Recover the amino acids of this structure.
């Protein structure tokens, strides 16, 4: 039983058309994503690679020269676009020298690959080396996902590349042997078909993974939006509750400490009534910025509702929390005069601070800090009151 001959040109054309189709699917996938610049470059990369494969099949003697140039340049720039898209998607700085190498090797192959107007094994080998640099660069990039939600897909993409690289080396190793003038043993046409099918499967899997990454990111952003206050960018009450539970578990496990701060803008209703709700929104946004500037990355900051904010200082005690609350109070009062709201006096805030004992949850501590906050209001506002200072003064 003999195998029917495989049409390599038709297989290459199918690969090219499929990549063009995948490019369109990626463009559709980013239509409603405001941060879709990375996948946009993926779409460009697949389109350029599809163009390269399509021009490879079009062998007209009078068009060989421009088609060869288009094929080489589209291959190099397509790889650049794909890698750049992964950098943008993963929020990493691009390595410009690496992109220059990937895009420059096909140009070098056109210049020094023999006769400028003919295909040759040296030219193909030089161009393929740019693909090898692309695969290696992508392997290193995929080792550091910027969000835990995409870690699984990044890991599978690394495995895909590692599985495809031996076939890639086999393909161009045979081309190198042919260039040296040595006789190839075995059914070379079947080998070429295997290479083409493997490349097609690799491209399909890569494109599906890219589309999957895009939808995972959109899902993660939607999840973030569900726990984020739209006005200040801080957590909302739901987000605070979720992370508070995690801090409770950490303190129970490590016998650690934390402290909470409740903040409330003094006479905020008067700001809204006298200056308008747009001015009130500016004040709330500024307080969010002041809080972010005075807490650490692992602390928890949230707008609990209206003009009330809550902060969990992870691993800090009550004394440290009082210092942070004082900085926030002073910075907020100073910056309120820079908002351009025609204020005669600075806007102030009051704060209540409580250290979290081992028998108390974060949410329970926030309730206690709220009591301290309103004690600060009764004491004249524009001050920080802690649970310990209330106890020392005979407060509730």
């Amino acid at each position: 039983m003999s195998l029917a001959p495989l049409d390599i040109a038709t297989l290459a054309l199918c690969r090219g058309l499929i990549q063009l189709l995948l490019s369109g699917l990626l463009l559709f996938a980013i239509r409603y994503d405001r941060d879709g610049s990375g996948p946009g470059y993926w779409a460009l990369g697949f389109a350029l690679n599809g163009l390269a494969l399509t021009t490879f099949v079009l062998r007209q003697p009078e068009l060989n020269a421009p088609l060869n140039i288009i094929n080489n340049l589209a291959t190099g720039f397509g790889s650049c676009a794909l890698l750049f898209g992964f950098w943008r998607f993963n929020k990493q700085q691009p390595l410009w020298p690496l992109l220059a190498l990937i895009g420059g090797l096909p140009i070098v192959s056109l210049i020094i690959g023999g006769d400028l107007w003919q295909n040759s094994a040296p030219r193909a080998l030089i161009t393929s080396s740019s693909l090898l640099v692309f695969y290696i660069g992508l392997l290193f990039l995929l080792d550091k996902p910027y969000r835990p939600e995409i870690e699984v897909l990044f890991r599978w993409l690394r495995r895909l590349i590692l599985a495809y690289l031996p076939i890639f080396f086999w393909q161009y190793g045979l081309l190198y042997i042919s260039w040296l003038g040595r006789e190839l043993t075995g059914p070379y046409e079947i080998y070429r078909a295997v290479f083409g099918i493997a490349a097609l499967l690799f491209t399909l899997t890569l494109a599906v993974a890219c589309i999957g990454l895009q939808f995972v990111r959109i899902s993660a952003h939607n999840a973030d939006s569900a726990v984020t206050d739209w006005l200040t960018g801080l957590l909302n009450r739901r987000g605070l509750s979720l992370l508070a539970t995690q801090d409770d578990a950490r303190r129970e496990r490590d016998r650690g400490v934390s402290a909470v701060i409740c903040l409330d803008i003094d006479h905020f209703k008067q700001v809204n009534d006298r200056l308008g709700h747009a001015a009130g929104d500016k004040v709330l946004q500024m307080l969010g910025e002041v809080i972010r500037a005075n807490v650490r990355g692992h602390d928890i900051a949230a707008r609990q509702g209206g003009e009330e904010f809550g902060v969990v200082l992870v691993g800090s005690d009550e004394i440290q929390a009082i210092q942070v609350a004082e900085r926030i109070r002073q910075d907020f009062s100073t910056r309120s005069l820079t908002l351009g709201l025609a204020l005669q006096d600075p806007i102030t805030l009051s704060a209540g601070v409580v250290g979290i004992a081992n028998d108390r949850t974060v949410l329970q501590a926030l309730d206690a800090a709220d009591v301290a906050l309103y004690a600060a209001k009764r004491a004249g506002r524009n001050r920080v009151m802690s649970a310990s200072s209330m106890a020392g003064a005979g407060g509730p």
Observations:
- The first strand starts at residue 258 and ends at 265.
- The mean pLDDT is 85.
- Residues 187 and 258 are 70 Å apart (CA to CA).
